[in-house]
Design goal:
alpha/beta
Length: about 800
């Protein structure tokens, strides 16, 4: 890199003895990393290596491990020297061996897994269980002490680190970014997180871009672009890059020691200077970062069978693939492992020798034992206002109107006011668009970029803001996950059509939580991931087809039932009750679907609480079956779906006074599943009581119809269940036009009832024709006038 990237030689930081011991500790890390890949027996090589000592199936990744351990052992030195509070995030794919090795040497691993102590038997189990059936994965899964970053998906290391640093003023989150990972879109946007980090109230993030040159089988982009381009890129992101490079361990140790210490001291200087002032007046500093260039698979054999190994992509995964069947390669592997001199590193009991044990920090200063990496230990419940105080008055069901999310915004405003150091709201430039703008009364948008005079018009930007807005759902989700996993609370809102951008991130987080709740008992519960899906499919008449996709909830239903919850509150009071419940919960992924536009209000607060507590309920005021068995059940899930289902019910009650209609509304979507499939599942008896075992059910659903069938297919009356929902029929439609095109409108639903209730199939013919005429009339009216008729826009429940 050019001179501004600090390639110059820094002062030597290590004396001869420090260098010797630090290098030995690093060699111990590397030895353990190799042992995890290969050994199931003979863990300390106290006898010659034999084929039966090798695992039958070799899985794992070696390429980034030596570089990652280099960072870790040098961090240990500085933690002890300056009493630092540090967590480490492993970005390179499947780079867990380095984290596991360091956790093992620090003693944390044996504390949570006593059968893997520092003795030959414990080490043998430690090696064998890596990438082994019934063991642990090759990336930093929840079973890995010290990790909050699931390495099974690339791109989120840096955003997780920044999420951990927000509101953690003493924490330094060191994020090692793999150069393959750096090619992903989410990682590219997360570099901009430094524009949201306040040096007064937040901690620090030290990015370390690990350039080892190769992915699985190809060069990496950032390792092959001209150095001035890389310098310009990182400077353009707003960082001060320092370079550590080389392949000779002694020299690299000296350079890393000096460079890392310089970065830590710069971070402290930035913070000390900023903290002389207020958080509101903070400005964005140029934070340091490190570019670390070391060979791919550093310290493995230089070549195998005449082909390049160290420093090439062949060292990415398991460098020597056939030691069991190839004696020459077995000998090569043994020579590689013995090159670390394990006899110098481990004592007769199998533990790390005393002079090396002294290099690791103690207690919670150990990186793998830092409580921020087990954030539930630090979590404090939110101080929540009484959500009942925000209740919308409902003198009669369906006769008043309001914006449900606007009411929610007032509640979240006061949640923010009560929790100004451990609660943040996240959204991609859509907080106000989703009618949550009341939050700005408690806190403005975080902004440490430049200001222009016109920015004062609106006044919603502040260095001390707590509303996190950036037009990158990936980065927002990563921030939120890092924030939650280190013990805090948050709430994310996004347009429904764009929630799919974070499908895979939410998937990974759900997998993390599932493991934590089922098999990692030492991890304390963390606050739930709360996602509000708004600007929904049925009110996208201004954006059109591109913004119409209710399928995010389909993805969520594929995750573990012990983790996932989906709520579709029909009105404001139900939304308040659901939101309060979600903010109190732990270890869930809570998805709330609520549109931002004005809607009828149905239930008083007491009624809403009872309804949401049950999750599903019969609305007596909307039903006409009080004096006998119902002829038909009309059901709904979703606010707009409920409007149309109620309007259809009103038509039926008006046109067929003797028809007995039962109206059922679903808030908790998983109530539709049997209890054997989801803990919220309604019992078969209660389900049959609501839906009967033989009557037609017309179900108007917010999302894709197949999802209801997926959830309810085991139910005894499933064959009589007819579901309407979104069918990919969209344009710049009016709301009723869109509903008609997807057959979720009131007229189509009424026709569905006529078609399925035997006594109406002939007597209802005249009404059926009238309903068809209504469909034609309203389509023509919208096409001619650009809006729906007043009787549609102003519809109220007539009874």
């Amino acid at each position: 890199m050019a001179s501004s990237a600090h390639r110059q030689r820094l002062e030597v930081s290590l004396n001869a003895d420090e260098l010797r011991r630090l290098d030995a500790y690093w060699r111990a890390c590397n030895y353990l990393s190799v042992g995890m890949l290969y050994l199931r027996d003979n863990p300390l090589l106290r006898e010659p290596l034999k084929p039966e000592h090798i695992k039958n199936r070799l899985l794992g990744h070696w390429g980034s491990d030596p570089g990652q351990s280099l960072v870790w052992v040098h961090l240990n030195r500085l933690i002890k020297k300056y009493d630092l509070d540090v967590i480490y995030l492993s970005g390179p794919g499947h780079g867990a061996p380095a984290t596991l090795a360091n956790s093992y040497l620090e003693g944390v691993y044996a504390e949570v897994y006593p059968d893997r102590n520092q003795d030959p038997e414990g080490l043998q189990r430690f090696f064998k269980l890596f990438s082994f059936p019934g063991g642990i994965g090759s990336h930093c899964t929840p079973e890995t002490p010290g990790s909050i970053h699931e390495g099974g998906e690339l791109g989120y290391c840096l955003s997780h680190a920044y999420g951990a640093a927000f509101d953690n003023p003493e924490l330094i989150a060191v994020a090692v970014v793999g150069d393959g990972e750096a090619e992903t879109g989410p990682l590219a946007t997360s570099w901009h997180s430094n524009k949201f980090l306040n040096p007064v109230r937040d901690g620090a993030v030290l990015p370390i871009l690990h350039l080892n040159g190769y992915k699985i089988a190809n060069p990496t982009i950032l390792a092959r672009i001209p150095t001035d381009e890389l310098e310009s890129l990182l400077n353009g992101y707003g960082y001060e890059p320092y370079v550590v490079e080389g392949d000779e361990p002694q020299a690299v140790h000296q350079l890393m020691a000096a460079t890392l210490e310089r970065c830590i001291l710069e971070i402290r200087e930035i913070q000390e200077h900023a903290r002389k002032g207020s958080a509101a007046n903070a400005t964005r500093p140029r934070w340091p970062m490190i570019v670390m260039r070391t060979p791919k698979g550093w310290t493995c054999p230089k070549e195998i069978d005449g082909k390049r190994l160290e420093g090439f992509w062949r060292a990415h995964q398991v460098p020597i693939t056939d030691p069991v069947t190839n004696p020459a390669h077995l000998k090569l592997l043994e020579g590689w492992m013995r090159s670390y001199h394990p006899e110098e590193l481990f004592d007769q009991r199998g533990g790390l020798v005393a002079e090396l044990r002294e290099l690791a920090p103690e207690g919670t200063r150990r990186i793998s034992g830092n409580p921020h990496a087990n954030g539930g230990l630090l979590r404090k419940p939110l101080k929540l206002p009484d959500f009942r105080e925000y209740a919308v008055k409902v003198p009669r069901p369906g006769h008043s109107e309001g914006s449900n999310t606007y009411v929610l915004g007032q509640y979240l405003r006061d949640v923010m006011r009560n929790n100004m150091t451990n609660f943040r709201v996240f959204g991609p430039d859509e907080t106000a668009s989703n009618k949550l703008e009341a939050i700005y009364e408690a806190s403005k948008k975080t902004w440490l970029g430049e200001y222009k005079p016109e920015d004062r018009d609106g006044g919603e930007l502040s260095a001390d803001g707590r509303v996190m807005e950036m037009l990158s759902e990936h980065t927002l989700e990563g921030w939120l996950e890092g924030y939650l996993l280190t013990g805090r609370h948050g709430f994310l809102s996004t347009y429904e059509g764009f929630a799919h951008i974070i499908d895979s991130m939410v998937n990974q987080h759900a997998k993390w939580l599932e493991k934590c709740t089922t098999s990692v008992s030492w991890r304390a519960p963390v606050s739930s991931l709360n996602i509000l899906i708004s600007s929904t499919v049925w009110r996208q008449d201004h954006n059109g087809f591109t913004h119409q996709d209710p399928g995010f909830i389909d993805v969520v239903t594929n995750k573990s039932p012990s983790i996932t919850r989906i709520y579709l509150p029909p009105d404001a009071n139900c939304l308040l009750s659901v939101a309060d419940h979600c903010l109190r919960s732990v270890n869930y992924v809570n998805v709330i679907v609520a549109d931002k536009q004005p809607h009828p209000e149905y239930l008083t607060m007491d009624e809403a609480i009872r309804h949401c507590t049950k999750g599903i309920g019969l609305w007596d005021w909307a039903s006409s079956d009080q004096n006998g068995d119902p002829d038909v059940i009309v059901a709904s899930a979703g606010d707009v779906a409920t409007i149309e289902a109620l309007a259809a019910t009103a038509i039926l009650r008006d046109k067929f006074p003797t028809l007995r209609v039962r109206f059922v509304n679903v808030v908790d979507l998983f109530r539709l599943q049997p209890p054997i499939e989801h803990p919220h599942g309604l019992s078969d008896r209660d389900f049959n009581s609501l839906f009967t075992t033989d009557k037609p059910v017309i179900f108007n659903f917010h999302g894709y119809p197949a999802l209801i069938h997926k959830l309810a297919y085991r139910r005894s009356n499933h064959d009589n269940m007819h579901v309407r929902g979104y069918k990919e029929k969209g344009n710049i439609n009016t709301p009723l036009q869109l509903a008609i095109n997807n057959q979720t409108d009131r007229f189509t639903l009424a026709i569905d009832v006529i078609d399925r209730v035997p006594k109406l199939q002939t007597t209802g013919a005249h009404i059926k024709e009238w309903l068809k005429d209504q469909i034609s009339y309203h389509l023509d009216y919208a096409t001619e006038n650009g809006i729906d008729p007043p009787e549609i826009n102003n519809w109220r429940w007539p009874y």
